[in-house]
């Protein structure tokens, strides 16, 4: 596993990403903001409309074969052509966290096929998952368990919409109690 990376998503009036839409899918929305910065290092507190933090971590529900398939097809973040992005923060219910790890794996992949669905959209849609619970933030009132970051070229926008639609139709999503969908565009 790579060294965990602390990432902050800072929304306000500056940053390389322009927020073009932000909507609550389930639960409360985030306050409106104009721009977003994704900082891949610890940052000093600075004025913001909102800041969400997470850390990259080990793959909890991924088999060795799935991890190898993801690595073989996944493109890195920051590709020049990937001018579109989505930040999708998610909080799952207590019922999800009360399940044993193997029960969550069965729902997530064996029945919902989360990883397999994601593989269908690689390499066009790059993604990275950030865990908030690993920072101890959820227990302390952090509003989300996961922050999922996606980047894609404008030509892959329809593919990204299909990816999100398919994931939201799975059994796994019955355990989501808060989800916000923030869409972004990087100026050229």
Q: Which overall shape is indicated by the principal axes computed on the Cα atoms? A: globular
Major sheet summary line:
8 strands, antiparallel
Q: How do the SSEs run, as a string of H and E? A: EEEEHEHHHEEHE
- Radius of gyration from CA coordinates: 16 Å
Domain module count: 1
What structural class results from the helix and strand content? alpha+beta
Strand order of the largest sheet: 4-1-3-2-8-5-7-6
Question: What's the helix count?
Answer: 5
Kindly identify the CATH topology.
Answer: Alpha-Beta Plaits
Segments where pLDDT lies below 50 for 5+ residues? none
The residue-averaged pLDDT reads 91
Looking at the overall shape, the CATH architecture is 2-Layer Sandwich
CATH C-level class is Alpha Beta
Q: What can you see in these coordinates?
A:
With about 190 residues, the protein is an alpha+beta fold. The protein has one domain: 2-Layer Sandwich (Alpha-Beta Plaits). It has helices spanning about 65-75, 95-100, 100-110, 115-120, 155-170; strands spanning about 5-10, 15-25, 35-40, 50-55, 85-90, 125-130, 145-150, 175-185. An 8-stranded antiparallel beta sheet has the order 4-1-3-2-8-5-7-6. A hairpin with an 8-residue loop joins strand 2 (about 15-25) and strand 3. The radius of gyration is 16 Å and the shape is globular. The mean pLDDT is about 90.
